[in-house]
């Protein structure tokens, strides 16, 4: 890296917009959306989609609810051209969906593009040329006037051929490519020159797409540029102002949201942000950000998982685990305090399901986009007792007493630490069984019978102590009291029962019951034990022996 980066790089100049309005506005409705997955997304793939993959993705985009879909660059190759023809001839495009195609301002390309659209119901012809100082100088070696002439000539070539699309509803779109790196005054000048050719009206608007082709500044600068254009361009009411952000500075979503505040009507982007370099704007994130604020995004991501499947299969791309909304880990809490807060938030929702969503750490209800609560909590060595208890309860109906959670939590954490990986509910159950339920040394149970005469319970116990049989009788006001008294006569350490609870286990556990018992020795030592049996009395006896074995 440079010692003094200012010698090599410089900040993009600020836009003079002293009365800027966008910081005081709020988003209240969804914009028009245009998917550019099949064009900008596709052109950035190492292996571009084949026709059947493009068709599958196109159908998915329609199902999500996109009404404007840029399907390609039909003049770029036969594959692109044929795909367009197939969509039209085989009638894959619903009547309310606009088929958008991209073309450069060149006669041969425009000719072929028009040819590819014949017979379509509704089309958007999207013409672009680069306008930034660097493109003008380095790529084209042309003056501002010459670059403007490329745009107006291209616009005229399109205009002159529209009669060939009789019966097709046509909307025209112009992009001054690299808009965000272009002087706003010059973008306005070129765009107005194109408007002079296309003559849009409030009844027959054209789309003016203002690309953040490469993010060169902070998102507030893009918002200023958009507001500047909205305020200064002629015939604003004959225009649909459209945003097209890329993500070079990782602020494509922010730039788009601020651009909408600044007055834009439409957003171009791709699913999960696929696209050139760092990608295009991720439409899923912007749409679900609106949803999170209670605004209907007009796009349906109820089954995000199946959309991800199609996307990954068609593009060969994968979704990073931390991708907003879609990533595998987005609804997962690793930290114990997060898990505890989520657990409390979810429990509160159960008691007031109609309330606004306020579960800590979860921006939206995962269920709304087809994700499961099952993904909310996982346990690793950093997790607290809350996460451990939550998984045991949710997956196996094992409802540990609070105080026992405090004892088992660190035991589980140590075991998880040794495993060195994240663990499932089944792993935790196995740890619990090993620590408590399966403890059989030194004490284990061979038989236990009781009889109750007028409130006095007598027991007859057959146990093993370090493999040797031990039998005794005991008496008390209940089976456990009888057991404790009997044990006291058989060489077991003295103790009393400090805490007891039990419940049935879920049906998967063979209709068994589980008992949790805490014992306390005369010197104040406390230990928990747990026993499982189809007979609740025997489950309790096993729990006492489990605790005794843990002294
Ligand atoms: O990023 C961009 O500027 C583009 C244009 C063709 C709209 O993709
Ligand atoms: Zn782009």
Q: What's the topology here?
A:
Blueprint: E1 32-35, H1 37-43, H2 51-64, E2 68-72, H3 78-89, E3 98-104, H4 107-117, E4 122-130, H5 133-140, H6 144-161, E5 169-177, H7 184-198, E6 206-212, H8 219-232, E7 239-245, H9 252-261, E8 266-269, H10 283-292, H11 304-315, H12 336-351, H13 385-396, H14 402-419, H15 425-437, E9 443-453, E10 456-465, E11 468-476, H16 479-488, E12 496-504, E13 513-520, E14 526-533, H17 536-549
Helix pairs in contact: 2-11, 3-4, 4-6, 6-7, 7-8, 8-9, 12-13, 13-14, 13-15, 14-15
This protein binds 3-methyl-2-oxobutanoic acid (KIV) and zinc ion.
Residues 40, 102, 128, 175, 177, 209, 211, 213, 244, 246 line the site of 3-methyl-2-oxobutanoic acid.
Within CATH, the superfamily of the largest domain carries the name Aldolase class I
The CATH architecture classification of the largest domain is Alpha-Beta Barrel
Helix fraction, binned, reads 25-40%
Shape: elongated
List segments where confidence is low: pLDDT < 50 over at least 5 consecutive residues: none
Q: What is the C-alpha radius of gyration, as a whole number of Å?
A: 34 Å
Distance from first to last alpha carbon: 61 Å
Instruction: Classify the secondary structure makeup into a structural class.
Output: alpha/beta
How many domain modules?
A: 3
Strand % is: 15-25%
In the sheet with the most strands, the strands line up as 1-2-3-4-5-6-7-8
Mean pLDDT: 94
Supply the CATH class of the largest domain: Alpha Beta
What ligand molecules are bound, each kind once? Answer: 3-methyl-2-oxobutanoic acid, zinc ion
Tell me about the largest β-sheet.
8 strands, parallel, barrel
Q: The CATH topology of the largest domain, please?
A: TIM Barrel
């Amino acid at each position: 890296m440079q010692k003094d980066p200012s010698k090599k790089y410089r900040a993009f100049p600020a836009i003079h917009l002293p009365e800027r309005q966008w910081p005081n506005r709020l988003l209240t409705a969804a914009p028009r959306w245009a998917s550019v997955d099949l064009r900008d997304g596709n052109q950035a793939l190492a292996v571009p989609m084949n026709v059947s993959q493009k068709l599958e993705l196109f159908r998915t985009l329609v199902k999500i609810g996109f009404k404007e879909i840029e399907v390609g660059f039909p003049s770029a190759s036969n594959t692109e051209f044929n795909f367009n023809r197939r969509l039209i001839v085989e009638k894959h495009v619903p009547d309310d969906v606009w088929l958008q195609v991209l073309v450069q301002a060149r006669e041969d390309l425009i000719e072929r593009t028009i040819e590819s659209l014949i017979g379509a119901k509704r089309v958007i012809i999207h013409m672009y040329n680069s306008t930034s100082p660097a493109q003008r100088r380095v790529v084209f070696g042309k003056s501002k006037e010459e670059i403007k002439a490329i745009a107006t000539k291209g616009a005229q070539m399109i205009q002159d051929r529209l009669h060939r699309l009789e019966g097709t509803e046509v909307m025209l779109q112009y992009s001054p490519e690299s808009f965000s790196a272009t002087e706003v005054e010059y973008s306005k000048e070129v765009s107005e020159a194109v408007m002079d050719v296309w003559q849009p009206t409030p009844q027959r608007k054209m789309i003016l797409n203002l690309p953040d082709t490469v993010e060169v500044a902070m998102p507030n600068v893009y918002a200023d540029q958009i507001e500047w254009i909205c305020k200064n361009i002629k015939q604003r009411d004959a225009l649909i102002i459209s945003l097209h952000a890329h993500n070079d500075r990782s602020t494509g979503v922010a730039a788009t949201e601020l651009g909408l505040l600044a007055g834009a009507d439409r957003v171009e982007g791709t699913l999960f942000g696929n696209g050139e370099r760092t990608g295009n704007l991720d439409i899923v994130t912007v749409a679900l950000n609106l949803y999170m604020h209670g605004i209907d995004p007009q796009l349906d991501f109820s089954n995000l998982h199946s959309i991800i499947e199609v996307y990954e299969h068609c593009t060969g791309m994968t979704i990073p685990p931390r991708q907003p909304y879609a990533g595998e880990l987005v609804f997962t809490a690793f930290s114990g305090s997060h898990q505890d807060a989520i657990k409390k938030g979810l429990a509160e929702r159960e008691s007031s399901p109609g309330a606004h969503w306020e579960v800590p750490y979860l921006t939206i209800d995962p269920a709304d986009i087809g994700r499961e609560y099952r993904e909310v909590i996982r346990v690793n060595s950093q997790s607290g007792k809350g996460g451990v208890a939550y998984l045991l309860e949710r997956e196996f109906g094992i409802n540990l007493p609070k105080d026992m959670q405090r004892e088992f939590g660190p035991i589980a954490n140590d075991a998880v630490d040794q495993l060195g990986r994240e663990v499932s509910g089944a792993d935790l159950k196995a740890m619990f069984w090993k620590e408590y339920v399966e403890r059989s040394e030194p004490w284990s149970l061979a038989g236990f019978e009781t009889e109750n005469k007028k409130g006095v319970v007598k027991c007859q116990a057959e146990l093993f102590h370090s493999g040797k049989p031990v039998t005794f009788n005991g008496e008390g006001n209940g089976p456990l009291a009888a057991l404790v008294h009997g044990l006291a006569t058989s060489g077991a350490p003295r103790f009393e029962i400090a805490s007891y609870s039990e419940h049935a286990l879920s049906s998967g556990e063979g209709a068994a019951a589980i008992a949790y018992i805490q014992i306390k020795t005369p010197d104040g030592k406390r230990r928990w034990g747990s026993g499982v049996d189809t007979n609740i009395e025997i489950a309790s006896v096993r729990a006492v022996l489990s605790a005794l074995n843990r002294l």
